[in-house]
Each structure stands twice: as structure tokens, then as C-alpha cells.
Amino acid sequence: MVNPWLAMEAGADPAERTRTVRRAHAAFLADGTVAPPVRQVVADSWRRSADARASSDGVAPIELDEAALRAYRDGHPLARAMPVFRELLGSFAQDGAHLLAVCDPQGRMLWVEGHRGVRRSAERMNFVVGARWDERHAGTNAPGTALAADHAVQIFAAEHYNRQVQRWTCAAAPLHDPRTGRLLGAVDITGGDHLASPHSLALVQATARAAEVHLASGVPELGVCLSALGRDEALLVVDGERLRLGRRHSEIMVLLARHPEGLTGDQLSVLLYGEREMRPVTLRAELSRLRQLVGALLHSRPYRLSRPVETDLCAVEAELAAGEPGSALSGYPGPLLPLSEAPGVRRLRGALEERMRRALLGAGDPDLLREWSRTPWGEDDLEVWEALVEALPERSPARTAPMAAADRLRAAYGLPGGSPGTPLTARVATFTQPPRS
């Protein structure tokens, strides 16, 4: 079976593949259709990039200046893994043909290392420290797509969404916290067409695993952790073993983690299904299947978890309670189980998002407001855009984009104009924030 994460099968002609994929890329930009030989992982990434309005010709934005970058990456968990990256990929980074890059979960480049001449060439497309290379801002690329798919991947030449990047080929693998399973970022090697081989993908995968082992060293007890923010299928980590749960099992685990005292079958049914009439056997069957996956972690009478479970939901709530909106935002990759319609999950999701918004609005930090406004769930938040305008210096050129965004949203909702900072309810009592997925 062909490995879908590899760019090319053995014996394929790189020049011919480049020509055919470039034609497919042009067709996709013209009418949104994707034809073979474009891989499914690439087609999915092109669609995500197009939906996010990523530029097909621009450069990735730089989000961290030198001072902010230095402070941020010195405290980042992946700083501990850099000796591993340099030991295993150092020869690539200094051979005059490749770059070693490491980014955070948002795709912001923290380290870009290699021969000076190769780095200068990459600088023309802003492949530099501080730049943001997630799919939303840079289109399809190995580190960005590895983060989006949570899987090691190669991206070959014309498979890149952005034409400026199509002379490069890259391979990247995601990295996870060995204790919680949460995404920490990705490690990438970037170079020429010769990287489109099984060896480069295997190399970055092995490097990522070695880095995770290094990060796990000295951790006496890993415990049980549940990550459900920004993902439709929760990640359960039990003593270092990762398990991706289905959607219904994700909802059950989130609700049971929220109620360590336990829930009766009726209580859990209401939180999962609401007022819909469900046969008790339906819930019992779901719990039976979940127990087959998690074993003794799930107890019954009442339904409860047998060990304390650390969740990313509680971690973000703790940062908000401590008055640390910046730390809370760093730990918030997105809404809780975004596609879940379970009433109990929807209440938790809405409450956390509103607490986050209020904390950011109260802090009035333009960098935090700008970061929220650049997310899919914050880009249509008029109140945040207006707060961002108010937080920026009056003569700052940076005010232009937030003011334009606020004007666009006012027009979309049929709202009258108003000076930034004026409460929305004072201008239109019936206005409500649009739903954010």
C-alpha cells in the first residue's frame, strides 16, 4: 500500500510530477477542483488554505519580533529538545542544501538553522524565526500541514499552496508533550526535490520521537490527561500511552472529567442527549465500548473516572482565574469539541469562550486582541476588533486593518458606526455576537 504521507512513490519522475501538480494547482485556484495525482492530504490542505483565504502568492506574516521571540522560545518546552534536533539533524542544517526549523503549535517559527546561503534564500519567502507558517497564514507546507493533520508529512514542490514556496520540498513531524499528549509544535527539514524520499520523512519522525523521549526523561509519573480544546476527537493520555477517542466517547470523557464525583445514567444522558428520548441501552452500549478502550479508568454506579484527570479545559480556566489571559490564550487552541451538539459540552464550550473573550477585552493588550482576532472563532468578533482599535496608539499605522475589519462587521450586521469603546448595547440593543465555530 502506498504511504499517503510520502510525496512520491518509488521511481516517480520529480520533474513530471512537478508539472502535473502545478497544472492541478492552477485548476484548483481557478475553479476549486482537485484532480489526480494530487494526494488526498494535499487536496484537504489546499481546501483548508482556500477556506482560510491564505495567499497563493504572498509571504508568511511575522508575528514575533526579536525581543518577544527570545523571551517566548527560552521558556518554550521545545527549547529542551533543541540539542536532540541539532544532534540528529545538524548535518542537514549545515550541508548547504537544507534547513532545520522548529515551530510552536500556532506555526510560529522559533528556530530556523542552516547554511547562511540557504537561509538567505528562504528569507525571501519569510521562512524566518518569528514568522507564522500554519496553513491559515502560509497555505499548505510541511510544518503547517503536520500541525493541522497531527501527522508527519512531506510536501513536494508544487504541492505547496503558495507559489513562492513551490521551489522547495520539506518534511515535518508534530511533537507532543509526553505527559499530556498536547501538541507542542513541529520539527521540519526544508530543501530541494531530493527530500521527496522515504528517508527524509522517516528521519523527521524518528527525530520527533527521540525529542519526546528526551522531554519525558525525569518525569516520575505521567498520570491521565485529556485534551479536547480545538479538536473534535479528544486525545486521552494514560501514563504516556496516547489514545484518540471517537466523538461520542470524547463527549463522555469530557463530562466525566468535569464531574469527578460521578454521574448517574439519567444525568449523563441529559448532558449528552438533552431532552431527546433515548433508550437507556443506547448509553449503556456507548459506555461499554468506552470501557473496552480505557479499561479500569471507567467505573460505574455512578459513572465516574477512577483516577484524577488533568484536562486542557481546566488548565485554561485556571490561568483565567489567576488573571493570566496571555497564558490562557497560549493554552487555547480552539473551542471545546467544536462540532459537539451535546448540551453539556455546548454549555462548557460557550462559558469558556466567553470567559476568554472577557479576559482579553478586560486586559486591553493589543497583541492578545490581535491574536484572538486572527483565529477562525475570533475573526468576526466585532467587540474585539473595536477594542483592538482602541488599544492601539491613535497615530499608529497598525490601526488601519482593525478599523477596516470593524467597519466591515458593522456593515454586515446593519449596525450604525460608533467610536471604539462605546458599548455595543448602547448603539443597538438587539445585537448579539455571531456564532463562532
TrEMBL record:
Residues 116-215 form the GAF domain. Signal peptide: none annotated. Residues 415-437 are annotated as: Disordered. This is Transcriptional regulator. InterPro entries: GAF, GAF-like_dom_sf.
